[in-house]
Amino acid sequence: MRLRVTFAKLNALRYTGHLDLHHIWERAARRAELPLAYSQGFHPQPKISLASALPLGFSSRCEVMDMRLNEEIPLEGLKERIQAAVPSGLQILKVDSVDEKLPALQTLVAEAEYEAVLTEPADGSMLKQRAVEMLAASTLPRERRGKSYDLRPLIGRVDVIETPQGGIHLTMRLSAREGATGRPEEVLDQLGIPADTVRVERTRLIFTNETIE
Amino acid sequence: MLTPEQIEAKLDRILLKVQKPGRYVGGELNITVKDWEAATTKVALVFPDIYDIGVSNVGLKILYDQVNQRADSLAERAYVPWLDMEALMREHGIPLYSLESKRPLAAFDLIGFTLPYETLYTNALNALDLAGIPVRAAERGEEHPIVIAGGHSTMNPEPMHAFIDAFVIGEGEEVIHDILDVLQAHSSRADRLLALAKIPGVYVPKFYETFYLDDGTVSHIEALADGIANPVVKRIVAKLPPPPTKFIVPNIDIVHNRVTVEIMRGCTRGCRFCHAGMITRPVRERTVEEVVAAAEEAVRATGFEELALLSLSSSDYTHILELVTAVGEKFQGRQLNVSLPSLRIESVSIDLMDKLRQRRTGGFTLAPEAATERMRRIINKYISDEDIINTTREIYARGWTTIKLYFMIGHPSETLEDVQAIADLCKRVLAEGRKVIGWKAKLNAGVSTFVPKSQTPFQWVSVDTRERILEKQALLKRELYRDRNIKLSLTDPDDSLLEAWLSRGDRRMAEVVYTAWKNGVKFDAWDEGRKPEIWKAAFDQHGLDIDFYTARQRRTDEVFPWEHITAAVRKNFLFQDFRMSLEGQIRVDCRLNCFACGILPTFSNMRRENPGEGWKCPDVKSPAKKISVELPVVGD
After folding, report:
1. Is the CB of B253 less than 8 angstroms away from the CB of A23?
2. So where are chain A's domains?
3. For residue B92, what are the CA distances in angstroms to A119, A155, B14, B203?
């Protein structure tokens, strides 16, 4: 049985990385007494896959995980059972059974949407101007960890929104294909927004063959 | 004082700049967050090393549960931040805070440190400083929390006497309640400390004074108020309470990702070097049913992938075969590693591991500690080479490719021949392994350096000098580095010497600890924290000599700095055992024959009131024979 769990990752869990999240799910499966499947061999690994790694420090309302079980179990009450077995920063939104033969979850992700809330006052119209300029550019050469790449083709959309209360937030849609991942912090940096003055949340993952919200 | 909201806001700005920010945010599964206002007494439990090490500490977990089970109290946790985080916390004015409610430690009524080993001392000072609490007990006022400490190293609390208001000597499960009651019954600091000092097993340094002889050794120690115990006798619990099962499950990777069930406390083997074996007597066991039920409950409550069955000597647990059989059957096929430490060197141990039905990837660990018959007699851990060879050969034959052997160098009167024998034995074990499984056979030799501890038969002996340790280590490297299938690990001599002077230091050493910390020493247990030159300068500044504490054979009539603290094992017994070691005499397992160490008379009433199978001292009907040995004066 292939179980698909959609969940939010909030609060303290923002500071838990991708690998550690795998462990959290493995332990959660044991606590919930789910018959989690393991790979064969010398070092059996749990058959858990997460759709897309979430950068450290970001919260998310739309994480997706597939977990393979050794046997069929009823979906009835499963969401509650899993919720009771996870740390408080994980909120279970949906639990489904999906076709075992579907390709690996990671290969299905196309794009991701993010919301970035500025925690300090900033000049909204200037940010809007910069966003327009950024999107008008044909290339955005950047360097990350010593490798140069072009950020522009990874950006789908960026909007700067000013709220009536004077707050500013940005929404963006970035590529999230394997090997072509647009990183929100790179976009923010391109716009001149310091990393420690912004809170980022992933709001939506867009899949090639379906959309999960 | 900052509010939790202010602390969280400040944290948000810095957490992404440090390694592993998950250490600093709490929110783990199985934590207890109680209503702050509803609790009369608030306790912050501190493990003075980083989260990765501290969070799995069982002692603090026990206390966390004990305090939180009371309606009138709450307990939260704190660990010390790693260097990068500490720098940012100081820069942004963030005090050390509790993980549960993000409150500054200074807002609590009681700060409880665990000090299981001496290399945490400077970190404890740093934790207080980072919390904005005066590091010196004498400088704390009514507005500050009471600071207590417990743990194995506090069997000689003196090097920390100036910083800790009250020490708990011995086991904490019951005494923590006495302490909370005192805090609730008294309000001023002075009244509280006096009342704490009257609790059995609690040592409040300010009510004692140490007097010295001209040669720098202790003349005597006086209690300064009426009704203050001298000596302070350690506390124990008559029956081990149900073990904790709701272990905190971190959201990040830590050192020990596991649940621990203590199957037995204390040890009857009497290895003369072993601090734990001497100070945790008497042996008390949990029943097989209780252990299995706790293990199952703990695995269900945590989902951890490893279960450790903890004791000082698993093989000596009365129903060990029954226990491993039950555990093996219960957890079979559940992707759970079970570890069983401290097995005797005999083929039965392999049967025990077989019954646990574990994969054989982790290696099989044995601890001969010494490699010559003479040395084994001196340390009272007797085992023949033939037993070691036969057992290890069988371990290789039964599917393990790696054997880990633990040894110590620096036992009293050890020569280079004794060290050579360690290398020879390692090579012999591996050669036998090769005969059985060929070049797959591997051997890990862990050779640490012996450090004499207070309250043990070796409390009189000197520790090897740095040069001597290096000479012995060089011999081992020369002998063992050639074989690629032998992995040798050694302890840095500076670490051993630090542990050596702190473990048998006196009150004057508190100033050395303070100065060393003030000059930047912390994380003594880490490579990043190793600063022997600052320690040396601190000794010089206070006119003290490192060798006085380490390289000096102590007089047989010497009054020790910890003479006013006792683990209930009599000094006379320890001395007799020390003398036996000089003569190479073995003392057998004391389950078979009571040697009158002093435990039975000290706790006879407690045992009478709480009879049961759990106590493993022999049932001595008549009062223990009083053995008195005149301590002859030898040495300088």
Report:
1. yes
2. 2-102, 108-212
3. 17, 35, 9, 37
